[in-house]
Each structure stands twice: as C-alpha cells, then as structure tokens.
Specification:
Layout (H helix, E strand, L loop, with lengths): L6 H4 L5 H14 L5 E2 L11 H11 L14 H15 L8 E4 L1 H13 L5 E6 L6 H6 L3 E6 L10 H7 L4 E7 L11 H13 L3 E5 L15 H4 L7 E6 L12 E4 L2 H14 L5 H12 L3 H22 L14 E2 L9 E3 L2 E3 L2 H11 L2 E2 L1 E2 L9 E4 L4 H16 L1
Parallel strand pairs: 1-12, 3-4, 3-5, 5-6, 6-7
Antiparallel strand pairs: 2-8, 7-8, 9-14, 10-11, 13-14
C-alpha cells in the first residue's frame, strides 16, 4: 500500500537529539533518576533583563499585530551592530532576516540557494539537522569524514577531492556541534580562499561564537576573507549565547538578493517571528555579554571535568573540547563486547544500555555521521555531570 505521507517528508529522519531528550524526560517524569547529556541548550535561565523586556513588550499593543515578515527593523539594525561588535563584520540591516530559530534559518537558506541536483559538502561529524533541509531542497549531501587525528577539522585537500561540477555549497561550523572543534585562523582563511577560487557558497553557522575556551578564538570567515562576503550566508541566533533556546529567534545574514528572497519565502511560511520574542532578542543583542561570560566560565570548568573523567574510562578517548558545550568521545574500544549481560556492537546499542541500565542519556554518533562516537553535553549542573560520568565509568570499568 502506498504511504499516505509524501516521499519528500517521509524520507526525513527525526531529530536524534530531540528524541533522546524527549525519552530522558519521559523516564524522569516516571520517577527514574535520569541524567541527560543529550540536550543542546544551556542549563541557565534567560537573563532577567531580557525577560523583563519581553514582559514589557506584552503590554504594548503594537506587538499584538503583524510585523514585517523578515524581522522588526529595530532588531535587524541591532543585529547589524552586534555583528560589527562581535565579528568585526560591517553589514547592512537589509542583509538580515530574522527567523524562527536557527533551524528555520538553515532551512530558508537551503531553499533559497540550492537547486535540484546540487551537491553540498558537509564535514562529519555534523549537526544532525543539516542533511534534511539539503534533501528537502532536492540537493545531495556529500559527507567529508574527519577524525580525532585531524582535530575533527576538514582540510582543503579533502574539499578539493570532493569537488565536482555540481558542488554548490560548503557547510562550515566553528565552534562545532557536536565535536567542540574550533578552526584556527589560518585554516579558516585557506577554506575561504578555496571557496572563492571555486565559486562555492559558504553556509557558516556561528551560533556558538561566544563559547570558546582556553587559547581558542572564534573568527568569522567573511571577516578573514572579505572577498567571500558575496557568497556567504551566516547563520546565528540568541539561543546559545543568551540561554534563549525556547524563545525561537535566529537569523540569516546574506547578500541582499538572498536576504530578500528568504524574506519572501518566510512571508508564505510563517510570516513574522513572534513580536514578543523579537523584542526579547532586541534586548539581548543590544545588551552586555556579561551573562554569557558567566555561563562560559561554568562551561569551561565542566568541560575540563568531563574531559578528564571520560579519558579515565577504559576503552574511551576524547579530545578536549575547544568550543560549544559538547564533548565527542570515541567509544570504539567499548564495542563488540558484553556490557550488563548484553552484546554491544554499535554506539546505538551502547546509548540504549546507558539509558536502560544506568539512566544516563547520550546521543550516539550515528546521528552525527560518526559511528563509534557519542555526543555528551556539559550544559548541565556540576553534580549531575559528575554523577552521570561516574555511572558510565562504573558500568564500563565494572
């Protein structure tokens, strides 16, 4: 019998990260002492000055009505100022489109730029969402595997080896979800110059721009290679920097023709992002970065604890995360053995055993194009983090 669901939508894989978080919450609600390493969101509340701006906006009748589909003019201007402040990149507010979160920004730029038959280069491990909007646009994902040996960073040699006449774009992410890798300046410059020489679009995801640690520094690619600006789309939002995942405000920064087309598309999809959320985002991007500094200090401490505790487990190795709030340990040494009386062949198996036997939720590497690995978020309380890792250690070392 033919499926009632369209082939296009039926081919979409559910978000693995949201699925893990949902299952963990379900077990926790049933009374299980679940510790979740799956969530890709800060465990801090949205700063009070942002919440207060939203409360105030609720009382203003202007926010009770439709607003421009591509974003409030004041917010677009503030995003332009914030981009100059944080990245050193000067843009026009007409280049900004405010979206319903970062995923919406990703979807829109794929729909606007990609055609059927185009190929998009995607370094792996990758955020689980990227391949789906590529496929929905009729394009094809070309996965470029990276490893611990390369610091989970793609090389220009790999890009050249994967280049075809159909290659349209490269997805570039630094700091990386899920690996925590941060590209150094010279490698970003080399990748930008490669894209310029080969007339390749760059979709650069900068959502974790403020979450870097130690000697690592975030650089915005079009700042380092200004000639790339006309073939670059920047994806960003308030979710990670300001602990605003639930407010659903992201944005695209693109050449004006791309931004205009994206705004037109959005006018038929969703119309404007909720005005109250936009007013909260306005307060966020116009305000200080003190709140993210407090979060970053906590994340820095937790990443060091996680790195140390994971590396102390037999059969596990992990690079020290340089950015974002994830570690990406290699569990290959734990596979093809019995754990808790069960045969473990994949990290999918391992994740299931963790959840059922010790009530610890992780996201298996298969979701990120990296079997044998797993993503563990350190955006959770210190006590839960140490307890969860202790449970993993006791199970695997037992």
């Amino acid at each position: 019998m033919e499926s009632r669901i369209s082939k296009r939508v039926g081919a979409i894989a559910p978000s693995a990260t949201l699925a893990v978080t949902s299952k963990a919450k379900e077990l926790k609600a049933a009374g299980a002492p679940v510790i979740g390493f799956g969530a890709g969101e800060p465990d801090f509340p949205t700063p009070s000055y942002i919440v207060e701006a939203a409360i105030s906006a609720c009382s203003d009748p202007v926010n009770h009505r439709y607003s421009p589909a591509g974003g409030l003019p004041d917010l677009k201007e503030a995003i332009a100022r914030k981009t100059l402040r944080d990245s050193g990149l000067e843009i026009n507010p007409n280049q900004v489109v405010v979206t319903n979160g970062g995923k919406h920004a990703v979807y829109n730029c794929m729909q606007v730029i990609l055609n059927a038959g185009d190929e998009v280069l995607l370094p792996a491990p990758y955020w689980t969402t990227y391949p789906e909007p590529i496929a929905l646009a009729g394009a094809t994902t070309t996965v470029l595997p990276t490893s611990e040996e390369t610091g989970f960073r793609v090389t220009v040699d790999q890009l050249n080896a994967s280049l075809t006449e159909r290659t349209k774009a490269l997805i570039f992410v630094s700091p990386s979800n899920p690996t925590g890798a941060v590209y150094p300046k010279e490698e970003i410059e080399a990748i930008g110059k490669w894209a310029l020489e080969n007339n390749i679009w760059i979709f650069t995801d900068e959502i974790y721009e403020h979450l870097v640690y130690g000697s690592s520094t975030h650089y915005s690619l079009p700042t380092l290679v200004p000639e790339c600006a006309d073939q670059t789309v920047i994806l960003n939002g308030v979710a990670k920097t300001y602990a605003m995942t639930g407010w659903r405000v992201g944005w695209i920064i693109a050449p004006e023709d791309v931004a205009k087309a994206s705004s037109t598309l959005q006018s038929h999809q969703t119309s404007n992002v909720a005005n109250i959320s936009q007013q909260a985002a306005l307060a966020a991007v116009s305000g200080p970065l003190s709140a993210v500094e407090e979060m970053r200090t906590a994340f820095d401490r937790r990443r060091q604890v996680m790195h140390s505790m994971l590396n102390a487990i037999d059969g596990v190795s992990v690079l020290e995360p340089q950015g974002a709030f994830y570690a990406f340990p290699n569990f290959s040494g734990c596979l093809n053995r019995d754990i808790a009386g069960r045969k473990v062949e994949t990290t999918l198996d391992l994740a299931q055993i963790f959840l059922e036997e010790i009530h610890v939720a992780i996201v298996p590497g298969e979701a990120f194009g990296a079997p044998g690995y797993a993503r563990l978020s350190f955006a959770l309380g210190d006590n839960d983090l140490e307890e969860g890792l202790t449970r993993i250690s006791d199970l695997l070392n037992g």
